[in-house]
Design a protein that fits this description.
Length: 297
């Protein structure tokens, strides 16, 4: 009898366990169903031209039928980057070069969208970059930063062609610790001292004569792997002016800031946080750079 009683208890316990499993599983299944249903509705909604937000954004028929490839690309990007809808409300409010920039580099979309709030002149002359300096490091500044990117640098906007002053600014702050040497400061310095050349951009002499006026030693170095790497290992940042390739389709100044343990080059590219987050083979610079300068104090 004792055995029969024990067997009955086991069967009873098994039934109770099965009942508990069902009770536990039920809310899990319900939750999973709700999640899948939400996911499907969310995906379906966000794939439309109207962004999945409390208010559906309607684009004009004229805009949707535009043959402008930049506008079409922005329309296609808008569901993923909803800030673009602010731009598409009236694209004529934005410089064509800014629209093109946003269509090619999503990281600039917020900057471009805020252009309408920064019309009407240059920013403050004094724009220090407080808190950006760390001893032994070269800070990363973007030429399309709202503190100076909407300025006109010659006939163009600083966000478009301000790579030269921004590169020298990064080097100057990194080597001296003087946070007054912001891109805005070097922009004004470049214009005042004739380093901005009409139709060309920033003159190479900014990296030597201009650097000297700022208390820096900038010198041309051989465009070779050994020269670049040895200077970086000594703590001398290198500015390279790049030709068409990985960093630009025309011309562009970037800063080489260091070397990794496996021999890759660390870069501060004022036009791209994405490219700045990568490391690069030195061969890229040997093939695409037009000139390189090393800096010290």
């Amino acid at each position: 009898m004792a055995y029969a009683k024990g067997k009955h208890s086991v069967k009873k316990q098994q039934k109770l366990n099965k009942h508990k499993i069902k009770l536990i599983a039920l809310p899990i299944v319900l939750s999973l169903g709700i999640f899948i249903g939400y996911k499907e509705v969310s995906n379906a909604f966000s794939s439309t031209v109207g962004y999945a937000s409390p208010q559906t954004v309607e684009l004009s028929k004229e805009l949707l039928e535009s043959k402008d490839p930049v506008i079409q690309k922005l329309i296609n990007l808008a569901p993923v980057y909803p800030k673009i809808y602010d731009i598409l409300k009236d694209p004529s409010e934005y410089p064509p070069e800014f629209l093109a920039m946003a269509s090619k580099k999503p990281e600039t979309i917020d900057f471009v969208a805020d252009f309408v709030n920064h019309k009407g002149g240059q920013t403050e002359v004094s724009t220090p970059v407080e808190g950006s300096y760390t001893k032994g490091e070269i800070p990363l500044y973007m030429q399309w930063d709202e503190r100076w990117g909407y300025d006109k640098y010659g006939p163009d906007y600083f966000a478009i062609n301000g790579c030269g002053p921004t590169a020298l600014s990064m080097v100057a702050v990194g080597l001296t610790g003087n946070e007054n040497f912001s891109p805005k400061y070097i922009e004004n310095f470049s214009v005042k001292n004739g380093y901005l050349v009409d139709g060309v951009g920033t003159a190479w002499s900014l990296m030597t004569d201009g650097a000297k006026k700022l208390g820096l030693k900038g010198k041309v170095i051989p465009l070779s792997a050994s020269s670049i790497i040895s200077n970086l290992e000594k703590g001398n940042p290198v500015i390279a002016t790049m030709g068409p390739g990985h960093f630009t389709t025309e011309g562009h100044y970037i800063v080489l800031t260091g070397v990794t343990d496996d021999g890759k080059i660390i870069v501060n590219d004022s036009d791209s946080k994405e490219r700045s987050s990568k490391t690069w083979d030195v061969d890229v610079f040997l093939k695409e750079a037009k000139n390189v300068w090393a800096f010290s104090i």
